[in-house]
Amino acid sequence: MALKRLARGGQDIFRFLLALYYQLDHLVRELMKFGTVGAFAYVIDTGLYNILRATVLEDKTITAKVISVSAATLFAFFGNRHWTFRHRPDPGIARGFGVFALLNGVGLVITVIPLWISHYLLGMTSLLADNISTNIIGTGLATTFRFWSYRKWVFLAPPVQIAPVPVAPPVPSVQPAAIVLPPQPNAPDAAVLTPESRPLRRR
Q: Which residues pair with 179 in a beta bridge?
């Protein structure tokens, strides 16, 4: 009995997750593609940062991070524009990249804040501490902000098409029919009475 209840509970959870997936199908697809593009951008960012940090910019950790993030941002824009959000209206290169770069500037600040705190305030100047603070904590916070802001201000959702409401044709007004009375013995012609000309009966 316990195994049956456990199996039934597992089936219910699976059905719930499956229904939730179908309801959030577009969001899940965008998240998967965004994560893939972000993974490649992360490799570019982290790899270039460590190369610069270990060579020409050994004592300029913030400058190295700015350069690496800028290169990763350029890759991420074209990856998201042509793959992740290609089903959404294209904002154009000029406007799209302008807003994209602005939001990535905010993301860059978010990425650098944990690095600045750990490196300069806490005195944790090792390469491992710098990588944890900026490439794990900072990048995680910035990625969440970027995904939300891209969908809201760069790659907007297509406008919802509202079907026009059919309008019923006007009902023609029915005119009351005329009443034709048969010829009377003392009347020369037949009388035609309408409801307006009908005499009122006295009670």
A: 193
Length of the chain: 203
Contact 181, 191 (CB under 8 A): yes
H helices present in 92-138, as ranges: 93-116, 127-131
Helices vs strands, H then E, count in the chain: 6, 2
Rounded to whole angstroms, the Cα distance separating 168 from 172 reads 12
Q: Each residue of 55-71: pLDDT tens digit?
A: 888 888 888 988 997 89
Q: Which two tokens stand for residue 19?
A: 């229904």
Task: Please choose, from the candidates 79, 72, 56, 77, the residue with its C-alpha nearest in 3D space to the C-alpha of residue 134.
Answer: 72
Q: What is the pTM for the complete model shown?
A: 0.55
Helix (H/G/I), strand (E/B), else coil: 180: strand
Residue ranges with strand state E in 3-162: none
Please check whether residue 134 is in contact with residue 111, taking contact to mean a CB–CB distance below 8 angstroms: yes
Angle formed by the axes of helices 93-116 and 139-149, nearest 10°: 150
Confidence band for 114, pLDDT divided at 50, 70 and 90: very high
Q: Read off the pLDDT of residues 159-173 as tens digits, 9 standing for 90 and up.
A: 656 656 666 666 666
